[in-house]
Amino acid sequence: MAIVSRLIPCLWFNGEAEAAATHYVGIFPNSRITEVMCWPMDGMAPAGSVLTVTFELDGTRFVGLNGGPQFTFTEAVSFQVICDTQDEIDHYWGRLGEGGREVECGWLKDRFGLSWQIVPRMLPEALADADRERAARVMRSMMTMVKLDIAALEAAGR
User: What is the pTM of this model?
Assistant: First the structure.
């Protein structure tokens, strides 16, 4: 029996919820749009225009809400994408970064203003290493990067 989480992130967009959902499901495996709900009447938006889009990204459910221009995304909330290989990092960095902007230390903002952290799986383990000098070398290396480079991080930890 599938477990359905009671926690579903709701992302506030200004009329771009469907475009964002379509973009994201084209990037992540095992992803799909599951429902598009439209406004039943004129009001905050014209009747028939998209109110919410429910979608799954690699098994995690999200709702995109066309709430208007009152609120925008900030870096205070971001989504981490854990990657096993440099090819995965390159894929997510390139696709999520299309039309957005690179920040630093594995962070980027996508074209909808949402922040993402593209993180190699080895990084949290290296930063938690009992050898604190090794962990510090990895951290110093990471702090010089924009897109994270697994080989350079591993070299810093040697």
Answer: 0.92
